[in-house]
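A reminder before we start the practical. When you read a complex entry, don't treat the lines as separate problems. The point of joint prediction is that each chain is placed relative to the others, so the output describes one connected object in space. Small molecules and nucleic acid strands, if listed, are placed in the same frame. In the example below there are two entries. Take a minute to note the order of the lines before looking further.
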Amino acid sequence: MSSEILLIDDDKVPMKYYLMALKKAGFSVKQCRETDEALNYATMRKKNISLIILDIIMSPGEKYNNCDTKDGTLTGIFLMDDLENIPLRVPYIILTNNPNPFITQYINSKKGHEIKYFQKKDLPPFELVEIVKTMIAGNY
Amino acid sequence: MTDKRKKIKIGYQSIIWRSVNNNLPYALDTIAGAGYIGVEFAQRPDELGDIGQLIEMCRQRNLTILGFAGGSLVDRVNFCRDFKPLYLYIKDWDDQNATYAIEKGFTLALHPHVYMHIHRLADALKLLEIHPEIKFLPDTAHLTIVGDDPVEAIRMTKDKIICVHLKDWTSKYGRSPFRYARGFTELGKGVVKLDDVLEELEKIEYSGWIVIEQDKTDSYPEKSIIECSGWLEKKGYNIKCNLVKNNGRRMNNYNSANAIKLKSINSTALRDQYFGNINSLFYQKFINIGHFFNTLLPCLPAIFKPNICAVWACSPANNLLSLLAESIPEIIQEPITSTIFVNKTFTGLAMEKQSVTIFYDLQKELDGRRFGQPDILKYIEKPIMISIPILNPDNYDHVQFMINIIGEIGAEASHIDKDLFASLAWYIAAAAQKVIEELCSDAVSSINYIAAHENDVKSFLKCIITIIQEKLNAEGVSIWLVNERGDKLAVAAATKIIWKVNEEQQFYAEGEGLTGTAWKKKETILASDRWNYPGYIGKSMEECATDDEHSLIIHPWFDIKGGVIGIIRCRNKNLDYMVGKYNVFSEIDIAILDSICSAASPHLILLLEKERRLKGLSKLTHELKVPLVAIRGATQMMIKETRARSYKYEYDYFKDIWSWSELMGRLLSGSDILAAIFSNMTLNQSSAFIFKDIMAPAIRQVQLLLEERDFSNDNIKVNNYEKIPRLWLDINYFQQVIFNLLSNAIKFAYKDQEIFTIAIDCDDDGDKYVIKFRDWGKGIQNDVKEMIFMEGYRGAGATDDNVIGQGFGLWIAREIIRAHGGCIEVTNLKFPTEFSIYLPYDLKEIPKTK
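Here is the predicted structure of the whole assembly.
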C-alpha cells in the first residue's frame, strides 16, 4: 500500500508506537506536531493524502492564536475545518485523550463526512491500523 | 491584656434609645451603670433640653460629654453655647457651617458615613488634608461596609484621631441603603476586624476615646449595652458593668414616644380617619413598593381640595428623587415629573431637614429652591404643600421616601398639625418597611429554592436572571463574573447582550465604563439616564424592546468577606399599569437585588468551586492518560514482536500489563464521566452489540479485581444477549455502567470462591429491553435501596468491610442510563441482589443527531 497518512498530534512519545504500527502495516506516515506545519504540509501534499489522524487538544499556533480554542482544547476542530477547505476531503480519525462534548457535537454536525472518534487509551496501535485499513477501503 | 488598653477611655453613644425625651436620666443611668465613662449624644438639640441641665446630669453620673452628633451643625453650636465638648460630629462638609463652628471654638470630627458624600477613607483623607484643623472619627463598621480597612484608616490618620467609633456589622442583610443598617450588631457578632483594630490602637499607643455606637439591636438597649461592656472587659479594657440583665424591662423607644402623642389626640374619629385605613395595609401583600404607595395614597386624609399626593423614592448618594406613586384629580392635565433634583426643589429641602415642612408660597423661591412642578399651580388657588419625610426605622440618617400633599389654603390650613403628620410618617415608615422586608424575603426564598435544584453555574445564573426580572420588573438583565485571575469581568449569563466591540474585547477591566467602575468602587450605580452618567462608554447593553427608557442599575455582587465576585446589570423597568405608572429603578429595587445577591452568593461560590475542582480533575486525568497510552502502545508492539519471534516468557507478563492498563483506562474514564455529568453529558452513540462491545470489554477490565480476590471470570455468565439487537449506545459510557456494577458485585461478594457468581440476563420485554444483573453477595438493606443511587453515598457495609470507593459508581450508572432514556432500579435485595436496567426500544433507531 502506498497511501499516505497524515498524523497531526503534538505528542511525540505516545504517538511513536502508532507510527511504528502504521509503518509496519505498509503505510507511509507523516507526523506534524504543529498546526501551522500541518496546514502547510496538507496543502502541498493534498493529492497524496488518503486519511488524516487528528488530535484535538493542541497548541493553537499562530494561525489559531486569536480563535476561541478554549486554551487549546479545541484547536483540532478549527484545524479540521481549514483542512477540509484546502480542499482535503478524506476520512478523518479523531484520536484524542480527553472526551469533550463539543467534539461529539461537531462530528454530528458533519453529516456525510467520514469521521470516527476514539480515545487513545481505548485504541491501541494495531487496532488503529485495522480501522485505518477499513476506512481507506471505504468499508467502515 | 496590656496596660496600654487600660489607658483607653470608653464611652457610649445614645442612639440606641432613639428619642430620649423623658427618658434621658434613665439612659444616662444605664450608660454609667454599664461601666462607661463618656457619652456622645445622637439626639437633636431640641430633644436634649437645656445644656446646663444636661451637663449637670452627666456630672452627677461621672460621664464626660464627648460630643454631639444629631441635628444640624449650627443648631448644635447654638445649643452648646459656651460649653465645648471634645468634638462635634460631622459626616459632610459645608464651608459656611463649618467655619461658623470653628470660629466659635468647636472642634469638628469627621466621620465617613456609608451613602454620604464622604463615605470612603480616600475622601476623608482628602478633606483632612484640605482642612488640617478638623479631626478624624473613624467608624469601624462604616469603613468595612464600603470595603476600606479600618486598621489601615487608623494607621494612616493616627495623629488626627480624636475618637474611634467601635462598631460591628454583619453582611447578612446586604449593603443596600435600605438594609445595611440592619446589619449593625453587638461587638464580636459581625465581620468587622475588631481585634485587629484594637491591636493597631495599641501599636500606635492610642490613649484617647473609644465610643460604642450601637445604632440598633435585635434585643433591647440594656441587654445590648451589657453585652458590649462584657466584650470590652474580656479584651482587657478598663470597664466594669454593674447592671444586671433584666429581660423584662425595656425603655420606651421612639415609637413608644409617638404612641404617647397619638393618645393625646382627643378626637377618636380624627385619629381613626388618619390611621384607621392605613392599619389595613399591614395585612395586605404588595407586589412592589409602587403598589403599596398607590394603595396608601387614597387612604391619606383629604385635607383640602384639590388634593394632589405624590410619593418619591430617595437615593442617599444620588441627587435625584424618583416618582413612585401619585394621586391627581382628573382636572389636572399635566403629568407629574418623574424625577426631580434634591438640591433645587422644596421637596429636597424638606428631605434635608428630615422633618415635616409646610411650604406656604409655592410661587416664590426659598433658600435657593423652587417648587418643582409650577405648571400645575394654575389649577389651585393659593396652593400650599406639606412635605413629609419617611425615614428608615432602622437608620435615622436615611430618608427613604418623601410624600408631598399639595392643596389649597383654606380655613383648615391654620390647624395643620405637624406633629400629627410626623406620627403619620412613622406609621407609614413601619408599613413600608414591612413591605420592603417582605419583597426582600420573598426574593431570598426564591433563590434558596432554586439553589436546592440547580447543580451547575450556568443554569443557576439563568434562574437568578428570571427571578430578578420578576422581582424588579426588569426587562434586560445580565450577570458578569470576575475571572480567576481577577483582572476581567466577563458575561456569565444574560437575557441578551448587544456588543459594540469585537469578540476579543468583550469584557470589562476594572474601572472601565460604568460596569468596571461599579466593580472598582464596589458601589451600586443607579442611573436614570445612562448616556449622561459620568464614565459611560457604551461598550455593551442588554437588548430591550425599546431604547427610550434609560433606567439602569449596575450592582456589585459581594461574597461573604466583602470581595466583589461579579456585577449584575438591570436595564429598563417594565411598566405595570395595575400597580403604578412609573418605570424608573429606585433604591427599593437595589434592596431586593442586594438580598438576591446575598442569598445566592454562598451557592454560587460552592458551584464555582465544584467547577474548578472538576476542571482540575479533568486536567489530572488528561495528564495520566498520556503515559497510559504510551505504555499500551509499547506493550502492544512488544506482544507483536514477541509473537513474531516465537519467544515465550515463563509467565504472561504482557497479559498482566495489558489488564492493568485496561483497568487504569476504565478508572480514568470514570473520572471523565464524572466531569461530563456535571457539565451536561453529551452521548457519542454508535451501533453496538451488548455482549461484544459492552459486556465483554467490561468483564476484561475487572479481571484484576477478580484475581485480587481469587475469583474467576468463569463465574460471570452473560445469558440471552442475542435477545437485544444492536443498539445505539455510547459504548464508553455503557461499558462504565457494567464495569461499575461488576466491580460493586466483586467488592461486596463473600470471600468464598464457590459462592461467587454474577449472572447477567438480557431480555426483550415487548416494549423495552431489560438487563438483569444478579450477584450473590452481601446484599442491600431495604431502607437504602434508593439512596445507593445518590451521589457520594456509601453504605454502612462499605465502611465496615473497608471497601475502597468514592460512592459514585451507582450514581454514575444511573445518570448514564437516564441519558440513554432508560432507568435502573433494585428489584431484589439479596440472594440474589438484582439490579434491573430498562432501555427504551428507540435505541434501536439511529439517533436524530446522527
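Discuss with your neighbour: The mean pLDDT of chain A is 89. What might explain this?
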